[in-house]
Structure formats: structure tokens, C-alpha cells
Amino acid sequence: MIPLKFDGPEGAERTLVLAHGAGAPMDSPFLEFFARALGGRGIRVVRFEFPYMQARREGRRPPPDREPVLLAAWREVIAELGGVGGLVIGGKSLGGRMASLIADDVGARGLVCLGYPFHPPGKPQRLRVAHLEGLRAPALIVQGTRDALGAREEVSGYRLSSSIRVHWIEDGDHSLKPRARSGRSERQNLEEAGEVVAGFVGSLQRRTI
């Protein structure tokens, strides 16, 4: 059984399940912000870690698990929460990308990606968008305009499903952090993202598989 971390009211109508990115755990400052911000807006937020990150807590340093293991972890968590039902799934970077691969298959209410890795760093030719062209689940991608894994100029040329909404955070990097000279603060960008995610999750209707 995969350990889960909960925030927000137990009886919430909407639950958002978030997985972490490749390099930071589920209690990173980034995910802590979203869990508390969304929990404070009446959304139940559930976080979990993939097996390799659990191993890192034990002092080992394995690389990220391969895709089949990551997807199996997602399915296990969904089952542990009683099935997809009213669940919205997603996460930071890697976690959100894995959720996007199963969102339609499990009938998720919606998908939230916080910094989608459209391609590996420095390799814009290796796109990770094929499955996004036909995605049916309502989806929100919150992306920094200068994200090295998919900046606004790049993403504008991709073919994405009409079910996907991309919200751009001004001058944000892959973690939505702006440069000092932009005149914006990291807190401003995170708060904007939190408001957008809360609005999106609150607008979703229950889906059936």
C-alpha cells in the first residue's frame, strides 16, 4: 500500500490527487503550497510518492522508475482511494505527465498538470505530446512562459486536444518561478496558479468511464 498525505476537508465534493516531479518528494515546498492553498479552498488534496522516491527516503538514490512502474503506482493509488469516481488527477512535471497517460483510461473527472514536460531539457525534438492530441478528459496545464521544458513560443505550435486549457504564468520557469527583473514574485505566480487550479477543479462535473 502506498502511503498517502491528505490536506483539505474530508467531506469535500472534489478530490485532487497530486504526484511529485522527478527530483523532489511529495512534501516539497512547491507541492506543500498547492496542497495547503487548495485545501483551504475546500478541495481535498491527496499526495503520494512513486516507489523510487520512497526508496530515497530510506537513504538510497535510485533513478526515477520506468513508465510501467509509475503508471502502476497511479492505478494503485486510485484503487486505494476507492476508484476514480470524482477524482481529479495530476501533479508536478513527471507526476502530471504520468497522470495524463491514464486520465482517459480511468475516467478521471479532470487532469491538472503543474509544469508539463513537453520535451526533455535541451531536446525540443523529443516531444511528449502524441497522447495529448486526442485527450478527452478536461485538462488544465499551468505553465511558465519561459519553461525550459515547453515555453509559450514552443507550445503554441503543438497540436493539443480542445479539452486542454493552458494557463500561462508570466516569466515562470518549470516551477513557475520568475526572474527578479520581471517585477513579479514567486509567491505571486504560485498564488495565481492556485486560484486558476481551484477554479478549474471547482468547475468540473463528474465523469463516467
What does it look like?
This protein has 6 helices and 7 strands. With 209 residues, it is α/β, with parallel strands linked by helices. The protein has a single domain, classed as Rossmann fold (3-Layer(aba) Sandwich).
Tags for this entry?
209 residues; alpha/beta; Rossmann fold; seven-stranded mixed beta sheet; 6 helices; 7 strands; 32% helix
Q: Please state the CA-atom Rg, rounded to the nearest Å.
A: 16 Å
- Uncertain runs are none
Total separate domains: 1
CATH topology description: Rossmann fold
Q: What is the count of DSSP helices, taking H or I runs of 4+ residues?
A: 6
Distance between the termini: 24 Å
Global geometry: globular
Strand content: 15-25%
Tally the beta strands. 7
Largest sheet: 7 strands, mixed
CATH fourth-tier homologous superfamily: Alpha/Beta hydrolase fold, catalytic domain
**Reported CATH architecture:** 3-Layer(aba) Sandwich
Structural class: alpha/beta
What is the chain-wise order of helices and strands?
A: EEHEHHEHEEHEH
Percent in helix: 25-40%
Outline the fold blueprint:
Elements: E1 4-7, E2 15-19, H1 29-39, E3 44-48, H2 51-57, H3 67-80, E4 87-92, H4 94-106, E5 110-114, E6 139-144, H5 152-155, E7 164-169, H6 186-203
Parallel strand pairs: 2-3, 2-4, 4-5, 5-6, 6-7
Antiparallel strand pairs: 1-3
